[in-house]
Amino acid sequence: MIISARGKILLILSLLCGGEFAVADEFHYNNMLIGDRAAGMGGAYTAISDDATGLYYNPAGIVYVGDKNFSASVNAYYSQSKKYENVFGNQSFERNSSALLANYFGIVKPFGRYKIGFSYAVPDAVSENQNQVFTNITNLTSRFTINLNNRDSTYNFGPSIATEINDDLSVGITLYAHQRDAQLILNQFVESLDPNTSAPSARWENNYFRINETGIKPILGVSWSPAEKLSLGLSLSKTFVLNSSTSQQVTCYDNSIYDPTNNQATCFNGATAPTLQVPTHSNSGIKRDYPARLALGAAYFSSRDLLVTADWSYHTAVNDPVYGDKVATYNVAFGTEYYLTRKWAVRAGFFTNMSNAQDIQEGVTKIPEQINLYGASLSLSNFSGTSSVTVGGSVNYGKGKSQILSNYSVQNATTLGWLFFLSSSY
Prior knowledge:
The chain is mainly beta. About 5% of the residues lie in helices and about 60% in strands.
């Protein structure tokens, strides 16, 4: 099929604006390392979880917290950049995201033969922006401007309880409230020439998308020590959305008078231009389906000073005709902790964050991106009495493919992200 020069840019606009919006990082699950000790070891914490961060990773591990109250607070700054190559000829899309947030807070308290706790976690937070101007896209399209702002945050908060079955076995459960709030604003403006008269024309479109959902996220944990220096852990979790509210508004303006099919210009809702389209609204209460997550971990306490640990996690596939299907994913994490002295400890880790998108096939699929990420982490802790201060960070990088225009064309894509955190516990 041959599409006119102006038809191409209108097609691009419709593909960018139409249908589904991808907010936050819809294509990965391991988006934010939670906690201080755990984050330093790449998130490989399922078999340990013996501090307040265990409320999130494996609540069974908190039975090994001391008899005194224990709390932890973590603040983090996260930054990520994405590049989608050669979207318009040799011109690329570039999107940047950053967020400063209270990443985690947790407190554990003994209560008879039980340990109880309360925690707050931010497993995903995005504040993404794109402000670009593209020129010389085609002979008749002189300029294309895009302004995108995408913010999306997920919050988990709730109580936990754990108890020992015997000296080697413990169980625990966390019941989180789930809150997600997302907003996307997309403005696009294209300047072109009428192919018949060479008269200048302009097209502007504004899209507003908002979603708010609430639900619950139970986490069941088991911790077992089959040998003196070995610890094994298991956790199972799933988010259940109880209420969801989605709204979308579209407004456009087109002052051209040319359309190759009917010699008229129309906005996407069919209103004849030149005119300012009356904003169209749509609302939905359809609930998103989240995957179940299974995590298995093993930790080996080589000596008083050295610990090595590993995690394997699995997210089930999701069949969701509204928000998009997701394939099953596997992730691994490896970590180590070494005490330089009684007052200083260093931690390091490696982790993966695999894409849940289907394989991209040119001419077949319409998937915004598929990028597998690999990362490393490092942290340093100082201990003073019963308190500690930790500073650390992580970096992740990946290459993959994208169909950022939601059509059949395929672009190369890269992602680079880093996180810096500062925490205290006592």
